[in-house]
Write a structure and sequence with these properties.
Layout: H1 9-16, E1 19-24, H2 28-40, E2 46-50, E3 65-66, H3 71-80, H4 83-103, E4 116-121, H5 129-143, E5 149-152, H6 155-159, E6 164-170, E7 174-175, H7 178-191, E8 195-198, E9 202-207, E10 212-216, E11 219-228, E12 242-251, E13 262-265, E14 270-275, E15 278-283, H8 301-315, E16 323-333, E17 340-345, E18 348-352, H9 358-373
The protein binds flavin-adenine dinucleotide.
Amino acid sequence: MIPFSNLSYWERSIYTEGNDFTIIGAGIVGLSTALHLRKAHPKAKIVILERGYLPTGASTKNAGFTCFGSPTELRDDLSKMNENSVWDTVSMRLDGLRELFELVDQTQIEYDACGSWDIIRSEEEPLSSDFIDYLNEKLSEITNEKLVYIEDKTKHLESGFKGIRTAYYNRLEGAIHTGKLIVELQRSCSIQGIQILFGVNVLSFDSSDTSVEIATSMGRLKSANLLVCTNAFAKEFLSDIQPARAQVLITKEIPNLTIKGTFHMEAGYYYFRNIGNRILFGGGRNLDFLGETTTEFDTTERIQEKLRHYLKEIILPNTPFEIDYAWSGIMAVGSEKKPIVQKMNKNVAFGVRMGGMGVAIGASVGKQLSNLIS
Ligand SMILES: Cc1cc2nc3c(=O)[nH]c(=O)nc-3n(C[C@H](O)[C@H](O)[C@H](O)COP(=O)(O)OP(=O)(O)OC[C@H]3O[C@@H](n4cnc5c(N)ncnc54)[C@H](O)[C@@H]3O)c2cc1C
């Protein structure tokens, strides 16, 4: 690999010299931040540094749910967090989705407004109708939409699930093609003169009053401003960030699959959806919180076994299926279930800790971060 010091005049002038804004990380947040910066600074030189040959965190590994809160997840959040924080985060997720659809064309990312169902197993207590009324009241305050959540007693029967008592339908959630989202964001960056350098690992940075000196695996460069969008990998700079690995699997095609839509279970710790005639199924981090506090992109038999078990026992009890493959991605969590969007000093800012909601929240974090540094 050629270090920055051996680059040509042309290469330096485009990638490494005179940068107004340098962004670390080409995930949803880094790319959205770049696009928002471009709106505010039409002539600025904006460069993204990404250490992977692909974005390598969570943004191309996730389940692609455009979700802002299933009833059991919200009940769980309300039991652990301050009520206002819970609804602020829901509101931020909804704003994020609006921002996302401003940045990319829904059809290009295969957006499907399919709704979601939070399924309640036979051994679980159903939610009270008062609680569903409360959720609807709160959602109507945020969105002006009435009856976002309703109980649906038939979806699990139509879908052929076993051992399910009932389900709660959320008509405003949906699904996207995660890979196409990143491709579209990259395409917009390219059209708008934002350069992305893949294979450049940022090692450290030092800021002075007027600029930031950035040390990378390819050498040093200077930038007027630096935006850190490395999510779980920002833990070396900020203390309240923990990596949280999430594992998923995907089946081979299943002829005549009757399951359509996005589904949550057990306070959002499990989630599945159809992708054409396949099922993508993820979750199980709650089986081993400690073991999943890692940045290693592995899968474990303990969690994969549970996913296969739930698939066979609950989701596809009467349908033969084969697992095609499994993967993992790395999310970031902390003491609070909300992102960190903050300035470190005059010319360095962070937009990190997206939890399991970066698809929904990432574009709005990008906007906030751009405003903060601008
Ligand atoms: C399995 C799974 C399922 C999920 N499902 C959903 C879902 O359905 N809906 C939802 O809303 N959210 C979901 N999420 C969460 C969502 O994917 C994340 O919140 C979101 O992708 C975070 O985006 P990001 O840009 O902040 O971080 P990332 O996508 O992790 O991007 C950070 C980037 O920074 C780069 N980087 C790190 N350190 C350096 C360095 N030193 N130098 C250069 N580059 C660096 C990394 O390579 C990476 O590409 C899921 C996550 C996982 C793992």
